[in-house]
Amino acid sequence: MKPRTIAATAAAVLILVAAGFLGWRMLGSRPAPVLEQAMTVSTDIPTAVAAAPRGCVWFTIDFSDSIGCIRDGKVERIPKGGRSVEPIGLAADAFGVAWFTDPSTLSVKRITPTGEVRTFPIGTPIVRLGRLAVAPDGGVWFAESTTYSITRLKDGKFTRHVFESLRGGPYGVAVDADGTVWATLQSGNRLVRITPDGTLSEIEIPTFGSSPTDVAVAPDGAVWFLEFRAGKLGRYAQGRFAEFAVPEGLSALSGLAIAPDGAVWFGAMRGASLVRFKDAEFRAFKLPRDGARPYTLSIDVQGNVWYADISGFVGRLPAEYAKR
Questions:
Q1: What sections of 241-323 are H helices per DSSP?
Q2: Is the dihedral of CA 291, 283, 54, 73 positive or negative?
Q3: Strands lying side by side in the sheet with 170-175
Q4: CA–CA separation, 181 vs 161, rounded Å?
Q5: Residues 6+ apart with CB under 8 A from 314
Q6: 8 Å CB contact between 306 and 51
Q7: Is it the case that residue 7 has pLDDT exceeding 70?
Q8: 48-83 pLDDT, tens digit each
Q9: pLDDT digits (tens, 9 = 90+) for 145-161
C-alpha cells in the first residue's frame, strides 16, 4: 500500500465543522466538531500522524524536506534533511521525540521538538519500509520489505528478525506493554509475533487474501488489525480470531489506533470517515469534505482522535465527542 498523491489546495486555516454520525444504519444527524488544519504549503501531503505525550503532534509530509508539528494550535514545518518519499512509518516516544522512516535517505530518523535530527542509515542499497512503533524499552521497530524482516533499532544498532513467508509484504507494526511485537504480512496474509527473547512465529489469518495492513494492541492484550481487501476489522486474542465486516460504504481502510477506553479507531478513505468500533458496534464519523482521505490515525492521552488526511489536512476529533 502507498498513499495516493493528492496535492492540498487550500491555504492554512483552522475550521470548525459539523459532521454527520453514521452506524450500521442511519442513526440520525448529530453535530460532530472536527477541527482541521490545512497545510501551509499547497503541495504538502500529510501521511502519518503521531500524538506525543507532550509537545508536538507530529506528522510526516510526502515529497517534502520537512516534518510537520502541530504545537500550540499552529502548524510548523521542521527541516529534516532530504526530500521524503512514502514516509509512512512514524511514532513518538515517551519524551516527545519523533522516530520515522525515511526511504529516500535509506534510513530511520529521530527528531526532537527543538529540531535536532539524527540519522540511522539502514545499510542496504534500496529500502522499502512500512509502519514503525516504539517499544516500552525505547527500541524502535519497523517493517522492512527489502530484507524480509521486522527490524529493531536500539542503541544505534539494527537487529533483523526474518520471517519465513516468501510472499511477505510486511506493513503494520505494534508493540504491547510486555515488549512482544506484532506485525502484518500483506501478501503473506499473516500476523507475525516476536517475543521479547526474539522468537518469531507466523499466524495465518482465516480470510484468504485479506491483505492485513495496520495493527494495534489494546490494553487487554487483544491484537487488532485491518483487512484491507476483505473490508474487515480483525481481532486475535487467546489463540482465536474474530473478524468483523465493516458496514457498506466504508472501504479502503487505513490507520488503526486504540483509545484509552479500549475503542478501536481507523480511517475509511472511501467513505471519508473516521470509524469507531466499540461494544460490538461500528460508528462512522463523517469528515467535512467528500474528498477526505484519512490515511493514519493517532489518539492522544486525552482521547482526542488525530488523523492525517492525504488530501492536505491534519484533523482532530475532540475526545468529548469521540467518547459518546
A1: 319-322
A2: positive
A3: 170-175, 181-185, 190-194, 200-204
A4: 11
A5: 36, 37, 39, 46, 49, 57, 59, 68, 70, 75, 306, 307, 308
A6: yes
A7: no
A8: 999 999 889 999 999 999 999 999 989 999 999 888
A9: 999 999 999 999 999 99
**pTM exceeding the 0.85 threshold for the entire prediction:** yes
221: left (phi over 0), alpha (psi -120 to 50) or beta: left
Confidence of residue 32 (pLDDT cuts 50, 70, 90): low
Residue labelled with grid coordinates 489536512: 313
Cα angle value 81/50/142 (rounded, 5°)? 70
C-alpha to C-alpha distance for 142 and 265, rounded to whole angstroms? 21
Strand partners, 296: 308
Q: Across the beta sheet with 140-144, what order do the strands follow?
A: 129-134, 140-144, 149-154, 157-162
Q: What gap in Å lies between CA 287 and CA 19, rounded to an integer?
A: 6
Give yes or no for a contact between 241 and 285, defined as CB atoms under 8 angstroms apart. Answer: no
Which amino acid appears at position 62 of this protein? D
What's the CA dihedral at 179, 185, 190, 192 to 10 degrees? Answer: -20
Contact 183, 172 (CB under 8 A): yes
Please name the amino acid found at residue 160.
Answer: R
Reported residue count of the chain is 324
Q: Round to whole Å and give the CA distance between 133 and 143.
A: 9
Phi, psi of 103 (to 5 degrees): -55, -30
**229: its cell numbers:** 481487501
**How far, rounded to the nearest angstrom, does the alpha carbon of residue 317 sit from its chain's CA centroid?**
16
* Residue 96: all three cell numbers together: 516527545
DSSP bridge partners of 294: 309
Q: Is 10 buried (19+), middle (13-18) or exposed (0-12) by CB count in 10 A?
A: middle
